[in-house]
Design goal:
- It is a single chain.
- Helix content is 33%, strand content 24%.
- The protein has 400 residues and is α/β, with parallel strands linked by helices.
- The strands form 7 sheets. It has an 8-stranded mixed β-sheet with strand order 14-13-10-15-18-19-21-22, with helices on both faces. The chain has a 5-stranded parallel β-sheet with strand order 2-1-5-6-7, with helices on both faces.
- Strand 18, helix 12 and strand 19 form a beta-alpha-beta unit.
- Helix 1 runs parallel beside helix 8 and helix 9 packs across helix 13.
- The model has no long low-confidence stretch (mean pLDDT 91).
- The structure holds cytidine-5'-monophosphate.
Length: 400
């Protein structure tokens, strides 16, 4: 952590008293720390304590005494933004882009990874509104430190304690350690569903949200890679500066973008749920309701993965995906060989919480030598980390 620039943003919770210890630990590790506080945080711990420990003035407002504390500059300066404690109120504001304090202004401007350590009472933490905000923030690529279980300021016992300062520092330390292990590498990720037009208003699609592929793209980007994300119709917003997103709609468009970008990709991850068939003819006008039945003739779409598998040069690496409902391992290992993948990530629809539209996933990784790794049910951000770690293990020792 030596020389890392960390912004510690403190919001108004009783756990704010732990911020003093956190600043101390960051400074001891050699980091440069800039503290921001919301006005209510200053009721719990004084700016003087935190400015003394961080050896820098603490900012509590965007505009203070006729001076503008540039949130944009701060956002660009930082290598990491740590929001600890993060109250229910601040999570709600950040999740909705409400920009009414220096903390939320810097959050919206920051291009660096963001870490949140929530702290609140157990019922506030469990409330569906808070959980929805957490999910949304995770979907934007932010990292959450798990809340602890134990006695809370209210006297109640449950989940909602802020992670201990030592845990927060250890998490960041681990994050920075392999932070840039993919720097200089070009990655291509395909993600999301495809829509195959029937007529100008209708299409054949599927339930893929794109969450898994976007999480993988973000994980590579955070670890220093240049990522081209070929994304089918998905509601997700991707904001990392290392990610160049190419939006496509149909399997044909995804095929063309993938083939074009494959040449310079050291590693390709094909997580898109590509339609296998499309209407043979796309009607120019909206199809009118006529008889009792209607038959649509379908034709095959290009198999992107198989085509890239054929184009693969020595030194290029391809990760494929398989979503199976039956004979999972058998089907996945056949696809691994047929499409010339280096390994395949299998998710089964039989596992609760895995697959389309969930925020969690449970995967098995199968290698060409039949080596197999089974993982627990985890958030898609954690699964992305496991997949990228697996690529790192296989690829980073090889010479390109
Ligand atoms: O054959 P199946 O669709 O199950 O194979 C899944 C894998 O192949 C995934 O990696 C998926 O992204 C890829 N695929 C593709 N183009 C297709 C169909 C699947 O790239 N037309």
């Amino acid at each position: 952590m030596v020389g890392k620039k960390i912004i510690l943003a403190v919001t108004g919770s009783i756990a704010a008293y732990k911020a003093a210890h956190l600043v101390r630990l960051f400074v001891k590790k050699g980091a440069e720390v800039q503290v921001l506080m919301t006005p209510s945080a200053t009721e719990f711990i004084t700016p003087l304590t935190l400015s003394t420990l961080s050896k820098k003035p603490v900012f509590t407002q965007v505009i203070a005494e006729h001076e503008w504390n540039s949130h944009v500059e701060l956002g660009l300066w930082a290598d990491a933004l740590v929001i600890a404690p993060a109250t229910a109120n601040s999570l709600a504001k950040l999740a909705n882009g409400i920009c009414d304090s220096i903390v939320s202004a810097v959050y919206l401007s920051a291009r660096c990874p963001v870490f949140l350590a929530p702290a609140m009472d157990l019922d506030m933490w469990k409330h569906p509104a808070t959980q929805a905000n957490v999910q949304r923030l995770q979907g934007y690529g932010n990292h959450f430190l798990p809340v602890g279980y134990g006695e809370l300021a209210s006297g109640l016992v449950g989940e909602g304690r802020m992670a201990e300062p030592e845990e927060i520092v250890a998490y960041l330390d681990a994050f920075f350690q392999h932070e840039q292990d993919f720097s200089g590498k070009n990655i291509m990720v395909t993600a999301g569903p495809t829509y195959e037009a029937i007529d100008p208003v209708r299409f054949i699609g599927n339930r893929s949200s794109g969450k898994m592929g976007v999480a993988i793209a973000e994980q590579f980007a955070e670890r220093g890679a240049k990522v081209t994300l070929v994304l089918g119709p998905s509601k997700l917003a991707v904001k990392h500066p290392n990610i160049n997103t190419i939006k496509v709609e149909s399997a044909q468009q995804m095929y063309e973008a993938a083939v074009q970008n494959f040449e310079q990709a050291d590693i390709s991850v094909l997580s898109a749920a590509v339609a296998d068939y499309r209407p043979a003819v796309v009607a120019e006008q909206k199809i009118k309701k006529k008889g009792e039945n209607m038959t649509l003739e379908l034709e095959k779409t290009p198999d992107i993965a198989a085509s890239l598998g054929k184009m693969k040069r020595p030194g290029q690496f391809i990760v494929g995906f398989a979503l199976e409902t039956n004979d999972e391992l058998q089907n996945a290992s056949e696809k691994l060989a047929k499409k010339n993948f280096d390994f395949i990530v299998l998710n089964s629809l039989q596992d609760a919480g895995a697959g389309f539209n969930f925020d969690t996933n449970k995967i098995t990784i199968l290698h060409r030598d039949n080596m197999r790794k089974d993982f627990e049910l985890k958030t898609k951000a954690e699964v992305a980390r496991d997949i990228v770690d697996e690529v790192a293990e296989k690829v980073l020792s090889l010479k390109f």
